[in-house]
Amino acid sequence: MSFLRHCGVLKITAVSSASALWPAGPWHRATVHPFARVCLSCSPSLPYRAFSESQGLRDSLAAEMENGTPKAEKILTLESMNQNVRKLEYAVRGPIVTRAMELEKELQQGVKKPFTEVIRANIGDAHAMGQKPLTFLRQVTALCLYPEMLNDNKFPEDSKQKARRILQACSGQSSGAYSASQGIEVIRQDVAKFIERRDGGIPSNPDNIYLTTGASDGIVTIIKLLIAGQGKSRTGIMIPIPQYPLYSAAIAELDAVQVNYYLDEENFWALNIKELRQSLHEARKHCNPKVLCIINPGNPTGQVQSRKCIEDVIRFAAEENLFLMADEVYQDNVYAKDCAFHSFKKVLFEMGPKYSSTVELASFHSVSKGFMGECGFRGGYMEVINMDPVVKQQLTKLVSVRLCSPVPGQAMMGVIVNPPQPGDPSYNQFNSEKLAVLNNLAEKAQMTEKIFGQSPGIYCNPVQGAMYSFPRIEIPPKAVQEAKAQGLTPDMLFCIKLLEETGICVVPGSGFGQREGTYHFRMTILPPTEKLKTLLQKLTQFHEKFVKEYS
Amino acid sequence: MSFLRHCGVLKITAVSSASALWPAGPWHRATVHPFARVCLSCSPSLPYRAFSESQGLRDSLAAEMENGTPKAEKILTLESMNQNVRKLEYAVRGPIVTRAMELEKELQQGVKKPFTEVIRANIGDAHAMGQKPLTFLRQVTALCLYPEMLNDNKFPEDSKQKARRILQACSGQSSGAYSASQGIEVIRQDVAKFIERRDGGIPSNPDNIYLTTGASDGIVTIIKLLIAGQGKSRTGIMIPIPQYPLYSAAIAELDAVQVNYYLDEENFWALNIKELRQSLHEARKHCNPKVLCIINPGNPTGQVQSRKCIEDVIRFAAEENLFLMADEVYQDNVYAKDCAFHSFKKVLFEMGPKYSSTVELASFHSVSKGFMGECGFRGGYMEVINMDPVVKQQLTKLVSVRLCSPVPGQAMMGVIVNPPQPGDPSYNQFNSEKLAVLNNLAEKAQMTEKIFGQSPGIYCNPVQGAMYSFPRIEIPPKAVQEAKAQGLTPDMLFCIKLLEETGICVVPGSGFGQREGTYHFRMTILPPTEKLKTLLQKLTQFHEKFVKEYS
């Protein structure tokens, strides 16, 4: 039967929540694990090690049971499919989140659990955690969709002006028309002006701006342009560890070489040039490293880079001939008093023409983070600096194949970069809504630091920026052994048990990368203050219990 | 200087519209071609053959002139970049459209032209051509963006109900939250019900539905899953010729093998099984063909496949072990009285379990075409049938890396598949707006057929469906020679001259593929009736003149 092909040495046995499907016969029913739903007497290690495949196995088996007979060989199988896709992982929406969704459904169906609610602290999704959208952002974008409301006096005049400006730039004055592939021209102009204001007047050229389907789209597109070569000349892409797993996933999918450089946990997750240099030299032995990715403010680490550090990185990139990718989607999310956001573009230009006219840089922004949290719109932009014009044309050609990024997302980006100004009817409301979000995040960042700081066995750097905490946790040797026996990483074991016992969904550090022998998890600071407080307390209590249990 | 690297044997010389930039010195100024802007005495063939690169050359050169000194070698160059990206082409937004946009700007600046307006008939972009969005679609999507209006009595009750239903399914009840990667669950349920209604009750499972960022996204994602192997075992993907160039572009980018099968122009562009078989057998000598792509109704060819033809294709796919991809984005656009749309899914299931339980199929739909034309929203869905559950899980993992498709586009898809029903407050208006669009398109399809039918030297199949006409045109041997001398395809020469003299922008047939020695162009039938009439008349007159000029 084809599922044997998938499971290798294992006998897949029973399913707890859908037992009716399974024949008694040769299947073991005794020791079914509630999470992975395979028989632990046959296979103690499969469930967590390869949950996604075991989940598939179950489906596969279920399908065969339904039909009574094994299926003929498929054309598209795990073996025949794109193996780069197979190997990529994206922990932020990985098996643990799938399980969280199952638990939510079980709760809805009245299944008893040791908790009444699943709290998804796995993903930076502000609105899902109850943050309200900013009124002005939604007024303008709604007007762009339904211009009949342009005559409605419920909408402030400045929201109408902005909507008219965007609509006039749309073909046929409709947000339903394709835009230019690079994005709507007036919005690109507004993005350029926004960057100029942000960077103290350093010029930005709208021709260098591309509106994207979220920052992810821009990042993957630039990586796509950069990959080439085979064997030792394959493109190497330097990424921080811990990293946001979009990078590792894109690198795996595109069959480039992932070159890790470790952030310095003992030093607030700072980027260390010596580490960069070592990593680069090591990588040059087996690939052609030509890209250096920076995430600032850091995801999942929450650090904010100092101006000096950015200068050092730029100097390093110039010396070593590296293309710079600066992921700056958390530029509005800086909470620590002694930190400030400095864009790579600004620092590059302030370092003078030796750098500003040579270093190739792509930087990325998004509507999903900051104070807006408009993830669902999938809006973003990238700015490319010093890109060879011939290559830029290839970039434009590449993005034209997908026609354009979503116009509602472009409009959202357009409002964010061109917000109400003092004196405009919406200025006060916009500003107070914006500050309320940012102040609340700052408060929650501090609370997270404080509660983790008081918890033995948990070591947590301050959340200087972004939306995440990435604490290191003590995991006793016995737990490490148990995890090993199950083919799991120890932090995955911790997160699974946390989820099953408390309903709290966080992502194991192994999904982002961490130094060997250290264990972390990433959690967002987005739940409402009181809920976050309870979550932190439950989590630290659970950790205490976990450590005791395995001591 | 680095531009010499790009231009190979050529000396690039002068630029007409920006001459101030160029030093006199060694540059020729005499015979500058107005379109490609390189010196024809140095390089008669470059301008059209590789317009995009010559454009890049110009920019590159301009950049060097500005700085006074040649630039240092870039990291990302035409040579070092991803060569698969470099080789892909997407004619629908290719160099001729870039030139059309330039002409529009020149007209705005008051430059005199032999025409007063550029008409972009290059792309299926209904709203850009003046089609008005359907009121109900925009009411619901605007309400999803700005729920404050849910209390406004200007909105009909059914629009509010639908918006509430979608919002309740969004995390945090906000369209700004990420959705599940596969798409919002209630919308996937509505898509499944829509498919069931469309296909006479054949069941559709919401778990098989993925909401996508336009159909393009779904198509590329499935191709991405299917590619594997090296050399003779590389995945071959069968596509119709003429094809929609998304397919060739995706195949080039992903380094798969494009396997052409020719549609039968003499027989209304029908799909011929004998041709399929021959093409497949030929392809098996050098690759591993495992996917068969169908576009029905056809783009750019406008044919609508008969039920029998679809059955034959399914039988062929089953016999030959091919994964079927059915691009059905024009399913609402059928105009010919003797034609009807049959979905591959429906025909597959009506052929009985031998086929319906084995043939692997992915079919695609979009919010961009049909009567809605909401291209800017980038919404769509795909349904996968008989996909190995383990692979489906890999598919879900793959799409999760980009988090989700845009929620406004998902909402748009949600309204389209769940429109007002008889008795609902918006039913009459929705239906009359929908019919007005479809009847108008049918009228324009007929007019196009009629005017081309009366034009000597132009041979045009009836536009049975979709939004395009793809006429074959006579190009005299002398014009073919001139094109050859310029390194151009003859239909590109025709389209360039048409654009420069009349402002009409259509896409050369070579961008879609055509039998050797035949020449075509694709134009949309979307301009308003009177404008389309003028366009057709001007175009046929220009062709007559063109033929005379080269006789």
UniProtKB/TrEMBL annotation, chains A, B:
InterPro entries: ALAT1/2-like (IPR045088), Aminotransferase_I/II_large (IPR004839), PyrdxlP-dep_Trfase (IPR015424), PyrdxlP-dep_Trfase_major (IPR015421), PyrdxlP-dep_Trfase_small (IPR015422)
CDD domains listed in its UniProt record: AAT_like
GO biological process: L-alanine catabolic process
GO molecular function: L-alanine:2-oxoglutarate aminotransferase activity; pyridoxal phosphate binding
Reactions performed catalytically: L-alanine + 2-oxoglutarate = pyruvate + L-glutamate
Cofactor names: pyridoxal 5'-phosphate
Keyword Transmembrane helix on entry: no
The Aminotransferase class I/classII large domain, residue ranges: 156-539
Keywords: Aminotransferase, Pyridoxal phosphate, Transferase
Pathway the protein takes part in: Amino-acid degradation; L-alanine degradation via transaminase pathway; pyruvate from L-alanine: step 1/1
One GO CC annotation: cytoplasm
Catalytic activity, EC: 2.6.1.2
Top-level EC class: transferase
Superkingdom of the source species: Eukaryota
The keyword Zinc is assigned to this record: no
Assembly notes: Homodimer.
Task of the protein: Catalyzes the reversible transamination between alanine and 2-oxoglutarate to form pyruvate and glutamate.
Family, as annotated: Belongs to the class-I pyridoxal-phosphate-dependent aminotransferase family. Alanine aminotransferase subfamily.
Name of the protein in question: Alanine aminotransferase 2
Organism, as annotated: Microcaecilia unicolor
